[in-house]
Amino acid sequence: xxxxxxxSPSLSVxxxxxxxxxxxxxxxxxxxFLWYKKYPAEGPTFLISISSxxxxxxxxxxxxxxxxxxxxxxxxxxxxxxxxxAVYFCAARFYTGNQFYxxxxxxxxxxx
Amino acid sequence: xxxxxxxPATLVQPVGSPLSLECTVEGTSNPNLYWYRQAAGRGLQxxxxxxxxxxxxxxxxxxxxxxxxxxRQFILSSKKLLLSDSGFYLCAWSVGITxxxxxxxxxxxxxxxxxTVV
Lengths: 112, 118
Hints:
Structural class of chain B: mainly beta
Radius of gyration of chain A: 13 Å
Order of helices and strands of chain B: EEEEEEEEEEE
Order of helices and strands of chain A: EEEEEEEEEEE
Distance between the termini of chain B: 38 Å
Number of helices of chain B: 0
Radius of gyration of chain B: 14 Å
Helix content of chain A: under 10%
Structural class of chain A: mainly beta
Oligomer: heterodimer
Shape of chain A: globular
């Protein structure tokens, strides 16, 4: 049962434009959401997170938006750079849980 | 600072051979430890996690097993590899969970092991 879903397997964006990566989840009890970036043959690296009590968190070019009523979160990258080309995973967890639930990833290509 | 080491980086093994992948964490105590697998074109599948020495939770029944002989050491094993065991294996750690809201943290991943079973 996939509790965290990324329905777009790939996305292409022109350099300098906005990249929007989407993620949906099914369990309304999740407390914490995270985004990871992964290059081929490397482990994922943490990008940004958001608590369920917030609806927005910003860190430089990266902003995560959370819509709890829709059980939806998105990662905005502005402006997009070629180095942002990677696979992006969203993940969710509970405050008192030990597991991270990952989506299937979205491959972002930023075209120079 | 905390670091995570995972080895080997790549491994080619024949079908039916044993497997042992090792992961160690430095700079923290009592971490939660995880083994994930990323099959080709797929997402991250949680295989095992551990909240303490000797405590292993299995998420997916399969040909693999995990052990945690020391606080910061996590081992993934198989007695006989199958072709379907090929994939990219990732070890990760996170701070042990507390009940205090707001003290959650992310998981930190190792560099991964590319396993090819031939």
